[in-house]
Specification:
By secondary structure, this protein is an alpha/beta fold. The protein contains 14 helices and 7 strands.
Length: about 325
């Protein structure tokens, strides 16, 4: 009788082939040389929303193993206290920070999340105390993406403090807006002090195309371009080329910290008035993009004392309304 053993990544792919061929669990187990209980447990524990798939199954297995390795550094009494706080509906981050604040324990919220989801896979109920309960939580690597980090990027932590003050013109935030089904998109740039917006059309998120649009949009304003802050999208992989052409310093926000580029996020939301979600952006024209940006830049903003971004950026005053002649004479 075959005993239970853990499956390897190499074995999961032929098992997937046998499953796709229509073999039942008993037949798959016999062909793979493992016990039926191994196959049954594998299909039950490591399936996702679209069923069992070898790559996802390996990922789930690795998550559980890592949680066990990380969790072994803490005693059972420490885990009991952590779980008690989770059951009080504190988030893993709140538990982590509060325990450190009280000088009780130093543990990252990621390890707590891993413990919670390992508990869920084992039939526990800790996960019901999380505010956002997802079928499978995206894995993070110490706050960095596992697809590969952008080379030579400089953290936003090193950005001059004066940029946060929004006291001078020349500090930009950059991002992309992608159309439905990932068809077409926009490169967007927002100047922090004036809220002035630049936008250009892209056919795809490939780095070379995005780089060309960024430099094309900012080249006419190079004297007013000192810093640019991007998110961690791979479309900004050629940031060194952008920095060289524009003679600007480029910084990257922390992964999953969109609020560090809050102005850009807000500007993208305003552009959605003209390019709503659910709209493919492949066939829009450059004229449409320029027209939308023009409207935003000539819209009075409360945060600017009801001046327009155009007025603040260029340091001019323009008559926005058409007043009757009688009113004009009185002024």
């Amino acid at each position: 009788m075959k005993t239970y053993k853990q499956l390897t990544s190499e074995l999961r792919y032929p098992i997937y082939g046998l499953k796709q061929a229509g073999l039942n669990q008993t037949e798959i187990a016999e062909k793979a040389g493992v016990s039926k209980s191994t196959i049954s447990r594998e299909f039950r524990r490591n399936k996702g929303r679209r069923g069992w798939r070898p790559k996802q199954a390996q990922s789930l297995r690795d998550d559980r193993r890592q949680a066990c390795l990380n969790g072994s550094r803490f005693s059972s009494s420490e885990w009991q206290e952590i779980e008690r706080l989770i059951r009080l509906d504190l988030s893993p981050e709140q538990v982590s920070e509060r325990l450190e604040f009280e000088g009780v324990l130093q543990i990252s919220h990621e390890i707590i999340y891993q413990r919670v989801y390992a508990d869920k896979h084992n039939g526990g109920d800790l996960h019901v105390h999380l505010r956002n309960q997802k079928p499978h939580r995206k894995r993070y690597a110490s706050g960095q993406e596992r697809r590969g980090a952008i080379k030579n990027r400089v953290s936003i932590d090193e950005r001059p403090e004066i940029v946060a003050e929004k006291s001078h013109i020349g500090d930009w935030e950059g991002d992309t807006v992608i159309g439905k089904n990932h068809k077409g998109g926009l490169v967007t740039l927002a100047e922090r002090k004036s809220r002035y917006v630049l936008a250009g059309h892209i056919r795809s998120k490939h780095a070379d195309g995005v780089t060309g649009v960024i430099t094309g949009l900012l080249a006419p304003h190079q004297d007013q371009c000192h810093t640019i802050s991007f998110d961690n999208g791979k479309e900004f992989a050629e940031h060194e080329k952008v920095a060289k052409e524009l003679k600007a310093d480029i910084y990257f926000a922390h992964p999953y910290h969109s609020w560090e580029r809050g102005l850009n996020e807000n500007s993208n939301g305003l552009l959605r008035q003209y390019f709503p979600k659910g709209m493919e952006l492949t066939d829009i024209t450059e004229a449409q993009v320029l027209a939308a940006a023009w409207k935003l830049n000539h819209r009075p903003r409360k945060v600017l004392g009801y001046r327009t971004p155009h007025e603040v950026f260029f340091g001019v005053e323009m008559r926005y309304t058409k007043r009757p002649a009688a009113v004009a004479l009185r002024t």
